[in-house]
Structure formats: C-alpha cells, structure tokens
Design a protein that fits this description.
single chain; about 190 residues; alpha/beta; Beta Polymerase, domain 2; 5-stranded mixed β-sheet; two-stranded parallel ribbon; 9 helices
C-alpha cells in the first residue's frame, strides 16, 4: 500500500480529518495524529465497516522538553479537549518527552526517555501499527512501511519486545478484525 493510498483511506474517517484541520492551530512541537485511529480506520474499510467503527480514542503525540511537568501537559490536554468536544470522541493527548516519568506506574517495567515523537511511534508493540501523520505537514510517518498494515500481519516489535503485552494486544485486534494474521512464530 502506498503512503498516499493509506492517507486517502485514513482520511475517510471524518474525525481524523477534523483533528488534522484543528490541531495545527495549537503549534505543538512534533505533533502527530497516531495509532489506532489511523490503522483501525484502514482495517475497518477493508472489512466493509464504517470508518469510525470500534475506535476507542484518537491519539495525539507531541514532544516538548521545555516543561516536563504534569501541569504543562494537562493544560494542553484541556485546550485540545475544549477544541474537540463537539466531535464526540476521546482525544488522548500526551507529551512524549515525559512518558518515562509515568510509564512504570501505569504499565509496569521501565521505559527510556524518548528523543522525539517519532521515536515514540517507532516503539508501539506491533510494527504494522507504528504510523503517524505529522499535523504540521500532513506527512505520513510509517517507519516499518505499510505492507504489514495492509496485509494485517501482527508481529512483535523488536524495538519494544514485550511478548505478553504483544499477545494481549494482538488477540484484541484479532477479535475485532478476524482476518488479521498473528505471526506464527509468536504462537509457538
């Protein structure tokens, strides 16, 4: 699948379009619309479902080292919440420069400090889900390509290898899109 084809499909979700229209006004550094709202839209359309079916939230990453306080991030979260309330969805906004400060408490295990939003996207548990759209430029970032996304191949990400979390997430996806393949090596 070409990057343009992926973008065309992802933007059939009206919430993705609205967010990409609204988010540039905030001027957030290294801001990306990312994760499930993109690849799940594509999988929904491939499955003959409505673009927005089953999407729990819409993830927005930004990277701002200037202030790593919870209060600074919370202010951005509240601003985006107010600007997107009419969309009727949950928009999850996170400053990727501070993830390492709270990750262990929420998910267990250590998480290294990140150097960019792109680095955060590269660390998703499943490579075919490592996708983001740069809010400022509209450029697609897919560090592992789009072939496995189009095919629906789920395999662990060696950059963030967590087999138990991978298995749980992969199974959750398979329950919603039964045509997805889990790498057979992972099932051994």
């Amino acid at each position: 699948m070409s990057p343009q084809k992926f973008l065309d499909l992802a933007l059939q979700n009206p919430v993705n379009r609205a967010l990409l229209d609204r988010l540039p006004a905030f001027g957030l550094p290294e801001c990306y619309l990312t994760a499930g709202c993109l690849f799940q839209t594509v999988w929904n359309l491939k499955s003959g479902r409505e673009a927005q079916w089953g999407i729990n939230d819409y993830d927005v990453f930004y990277y701002d080292e200037a202030d790593l306080s919870y209060e600074a991030e919370d202010e951005v979260i509240r601003l985006i919440d107010a600007a997107t309330a009419d969309l009727g969805v949950t928009v999850e906004v996170r400053n990727q420069a501070r993830v390492h400060l709270w990750y262990a408490d929420r998910f267990g295990g250590e998480y290294p400090p990140l150097g960019s939003s792109r680095e955060a996207i590269e660390r998703y548990l499943i490579p075919c889900t490592c996708i983001g759209i740069d809010v400022a430029t509209g450029e697609l970032f897919a560090p592992y390509g789009l072939e496995e996304t189009a095919r629906g191949l789920l395999r662990p990400n060696p950059v963030n290898y967590k087999p138990v979390l991978f298995a749980k997430k992969a199974q959750s996806y398979r329950e919603r899109w039964d045509w997805l393949e889990i790498d057979p090596v992972c099932n051994a």
